[in-house]
Sequence to fold (660 residues):
Amino acid sequence: MTDATLRAADADTANWLSYGRTYSEQRHSPLRQVNDTSVARLGLAWTVDLQTLHGLEATPLVKDGVMYLTGTWSMVYALDARTGALKWRYDPQARRDHDKLMCCGVVNRGVALYRGRVYVGTMDGRLVALDERTGTPVWSVQTTPVDSPYSITGAPRIAGGRVIIGNAGSEYAVRGYVSAYDAMTGALAWRTYMVPGDPAKPFESEALKRAASTWSGQWWKGGGGASPWDPIVYDPELDLVYVGTGNPSPWYPELRGTSVGDNLYGASIVALRAKTGEVAWHYQTTPGDAWDYDATQPIVLADLTIAGVKRRVLMQANKNAFFYVIDRATGALISATPYATMTWANGIDSTGRPIVDSSTIATSTSATVVTPANFGAHNWNPVSFDPSTGLAYLGVVDEGTDFHAVDPAFVLTPTDRTLGRDPRYRGPRLAQSLLANPHGRLIAWNPATGREVWRVPHPVVRSGGTLSTAGNVVFQGRVDGIFAAYRATDGQRLWQFDAGVGFAAGPMTYAVGDTQYVAVLSGPPALYSDAAARAGPGRVLVFTLGGTAALPPPMAPRGPVPVPTYKVAASKAEILEGGALFTSYCSRCHSFTSNLVKGGAVPDLRRTSPAVHATIDSIVLGGARRALGMPSFAKDLTSAQVRLIQAYVLDQAVLAARAR
Ligand code: CA
Fold:
């Protein structure tokens, strides 16, 4: 596979050679054996259980009958694309305890293929090149400081003989950057930071010097954030690499020392020159981001005719609920149109800036409620674009978040692991007050006109990525385990399959011989704590016309929460305090609605036995279960606070037992 192969990927109908299928990342396949008439006969061809309950987010790649994909803990699998038979598996032995430094689960979104190699970014920050035939490592480089809160969940991309990789971590104290490595040797070609560093030292570039004027206080001490954790899209014609960056960190402007200031290049789409990494242009979607809106949603390239003029554009359905269309040569904003409910902004001004409603910015003296939620009106889930219908297809969520007032003295440090849930910096919780009934849907969006063309309301809040095909079909899975096909032109549902386990990932399609297949990974990430989410084993599901394979039997349902017999004396106020501590220190893994808990990967604390309750300090403070992934909180909590958490958990157990 060469640069020429990648450039010609659209004409290679059988294969799916890179994350978004082609350099444009439109995720639209020319295959049409499965079409709006035949899709009714779609059935399961094969499944592979990846033996994980931690959720799957990857898009499989297929080249010449072999499927390459990633699972949890950054593992890589090569499967026979016709049968699912395992050809090889690579376990990078990522440090399991690095998960405490990852905001959103030990997930990975996939690999890149190039010149006989398979490239993967690991959760602990390595970039590894594997031999395509055997899975044997050829080279490996550490792209981030070891033992720091940086991680990698995104798929690498190939641009002009180099592997481009970003990193995650803006929920902690990091300074985001993009790196380019020589694909053959692993030598670092360039690295571009997304926020300025300590101004006492020389800035790495003029762009960062300019960016520094948009910050104040001592932002560099907490890193500044702006992690480019998902989209990296290469345009070979312009030789530009487009990346989306995460929020400036911490989330709250007042804690960044900047109640005013744009905080470049946080929450921005940034174009980099592929040869040097130099910033060619930027467009900041959320200046001075106060809501964790990021700009890390999929970036899709297309040529659109807008008002009679052909434009080379990039598109993004941002977490902040604006759908952006941008001239990708110059960075000029063409349009920004709301595609979901928003309260943080009242439109875009004539210079392309959002008109912010400042009452939605939480400070040390005011809490607030905002829509979209920090989870976003749309998140990382892949978006497809069908150039024949001119429509983009995506899952959308209307939901609000409650942001607490913050302690202005709070400092985010590289060792903080409460993900901003430290009681002095209370992370948002979903606001019942604003949208008591958050809801989700699939929409078809016309980027040329800024109009929604059709919508399918979902009975659940969260849904997965999309795939469209020349067969006039759009595929999408939902968090409740339904995977369905819709007519691309009008949204009519044509087919559905109950997988028993929820979806977040993007589907893809390929052909081997005369047969078209549709593939998707099931397994909702822990963070998808939708009430309707169905947890369960992460699987590769592959469909074909007339497929008759059966799903493995579903997991046995759990019995109701038993009435607890262990007692901790506590007042109502103490139980409430225990609840706040639980939210800060426990809920990231043990939230009762988390898929980790529902699937059984992490204990449901409401079911804790009296014997375990009696020795709980040895686990929470003594680290007795460290080997199982339960960290010690000896530096964070006192024994008296552990009692309060116990009182809260027992109270919740009584409530659940009564509710059955
Ligand atoms: Ca973020």
Residues 297 and 380 are 5 Å apart (CA to CA). The chain has a mean pLDDT of 92. The chain has eight helices and 38 strands.
